[in-house]
Amino acid sequence: MKKAPIPQNETARLEALKQLGILDTPTEKRFDQITKEATAKLQVPVSTISIIDEDREWFKSCQGLDSKEGARDISFCGHAMLSREIFIIEDTLEDERFKDNPYVIGKNGIRFYAGIALHDQASGLPIGVLCVKDFKPKKMSLDEIEILMKLAAKAEDELNSTKA
Predict the structure, then answer these.
(1) Residue 106's pLDDT is what?
(2) Helices 142-160 and 29-42: crossing angle, nearest 10°?
(3) Structure pTM?
(4) Which of 41, 92, 136, 160 is the most exposed place for a label (fewest CB within 10 A)?
């Protein structure tokens, strides 16, 4: 398993995240609508808006999982957040970075993941990810990728409208 990398500008990234004032806030309908739309339109059981903190990924919105957060170092979103384009793993068991990841080999293991980084618009730094997950391998069509990209843009706009 390859742990999620820490960017060189991590201190500035965490400061930008802090300035948004979004961490550990209550669930909000506007974010839940985005993750519900993602699961429905992309026909997957799981979607999250994950905010990447120093040691964890915290879910501002989550459909299909009971947890509210997870460890950053083993998270898919920790990798996706640093990607400049959509981050897709069609089959996690076929990917060297994830095939022995606890989220893959555990009960109800994640077999498909797609995520798009969300940025603080003031600094341009990544702060989180809109992602979808499935318990079986999946290939995304171009139309599905476009849907996820549009939903990610909406999630990014909503996150940036919350600045404290």
Answers:
(1) 79
(2) 180
(3) 0.94
(4) 136
What is the rounded distance in angstroms from the CA atom of residue 164 to the CA atom of residue 160? 10
How far apart, in whole angstroms, are the C-alpha atoms of residue 55 and residue 72?
5
Residue 72 in contact with residue 53, Cβ under 8 Å? yes
Task: Compute the residue count for the chain.
Answer: 164
Q: State both tokens at 122.
A: 């003031």
CA-CA distance, 45 to 36, in Å (whole number)? 10
H runs (alpha helix) in the chain: 10-20, 29-42, 76-80, 102-105, 142-160
β pairing state of 46-52 and 87-89: unpaired
Confidence of residue 34 (pLDDT cuts 50, 70, 90): very high
Residue 126 DSSP label: E
Nearest to 128 by CA among 63, 75, 65: 75
- How far, in Å, CA of 61 to CA of 87, rounded? 19
